[in-house]
Structures are given as structure tokens and as C-alpha cells.
Amino acid sequence: MQFMKVDKNATMVAEVQEFIDELRHLMDDVEAAGSDMARVATVYDINMQSVKKMTSADLVVAVSPTADGQVVVRKTDPNQTHPYSATALLAKVNEKRTGRKITTYDHQAICWKESLREDTKYAWKHSNGASHVWSGDAVSHLASLTDRQYDELRAAYREHLRTQA
Fold this sequence. Notes:
Blueprint: H1 14-32, H2 78-81, H3 86-96, H4 104-114, E1 123-124, E2 133-134, H5 136-144, H6 147-164
Antiparallel strand pairs: 1-2
């Protein structure tokens, strides 16, 4: 547990320091009693990045000087945040937009051009799943595009497919 050290130059909340000290103490006691901590503790590298929209966040964190040491974790259920199959997505998009009907080809074109399948705001795929599921944000985004934008996407995608053949 020595990797958890305090950077004296950084501002650190006292509760975090207390937690680290208590965790170190508990780990030392268990190891002193002869137990193998490698079976209990695992080291993780965590990379956190600030995002502008809370709806895009996987974890919401706040620091409050008046909190009583509470930790609140917001879990998201992809079945709630991304409820639409590709078929249901297109049906919802076509209900909301004016102009021609959006097809699976249009969907493939925009996914290719804007990398929508890689953006968790729009798409989610279980590691064991074969297809993506889509969010309400995906419905709004796809419904907001004009026929002209879809025509341009289709042309660019068609050219991309030709160069791949």
C-alpha cells in the first residue's frame, strides 16, 4: 500500500488522508499476522477526466467542506440509459424528424463518420453482446440532422466503401 502517498504540494482533503492512513494500518496489521495480502488487495490504475456534461460522466464526484464523510455513487443501468435497439432507434428518429425516412444505411454512414458506436453518450455494447444499444441522446442527434446532411453522409460513406473494396 505504499503507492498511496500524500503529495505534500497538493491540496488534499483531510478525510482522504485519514482513510489512506487507516487503510495502511489495517494492511500492515494483516500482513504482520502472516496473511497474504496479494489475495485480498489489487492495485488499479484509474484515469479520471472531467467532462462538460454530467450525462456523459461514468462517475459523478463532488467535494463539499460541509459533508459528513458521505460517499455517493451514482450507478447507471445501460438498460435505462440506452434502451433502443438499432431498429427501435430508427423508428424513434423517424417519428421525430421531418423529411425522408432514415434508413439503416443512413445509420451506418453517420456511425462511420462520427464514430457514434465509440461514444458512450450515444451507444453502449456489452462485452459479450453482438450489437449496440442506443440512448435518447442518439435519437435527438439523429433526428436533428437535415436530409441534406444525411445525403452528404451517404455520399462520403459510399466513397469510403468504394476505396475499401
